[in-house]
Design brief:
Blueprint (H helix, E strand, L loop, with lengths): L3 H16 L4 H7 L13 H15 L5 H9 L8 H11 L3
Length: 94
């Protein structure tokens, strides 16, 4: 299972591969000109992937009632903040 952020990252990487530079000024210069100089035609499938990933990311249910058990579990909730900070700093190797 691949998260949505990975596919959105692949879309950004394909734009950078078309430009050949990581400089954002070069990205703008490479697409300057009229409508056919933009990367819309060769990257049309990537736009579809980006659109579907963005919709899936914004429609993901992340309400507090759904993830309450995941937020509360863990050994950090057993302790108050100062004893946990002291015990975790004492256990870290230097």
């Amino acid at each position: 299972m691949v998260s949505y952020e990975v596919s959105i990252g692949f879309v950004f990487i394909t734009v950078l591969l078309c430009v050949g530079s990581l400089n954002l000024s070069q990205v703008v210069i490479a697409q300057s000109g009229w409508f056919f100089n933009w990367f819309w035609l060769p990257l049309l499938p990537m736009f579809v992937i980006f659109f579907v990933s963005a919709l899936a990311e914004t429609n993901a249910r992340r309400s507090t009632a759904d993830v309450e058990a995941e937020l509360v579990q863990g050994f950090q909730t057993e302790y108050s903040s100062m004893p946990f900070a002291c015990s975790s700093s004492a256990n870290t190797p230097t």
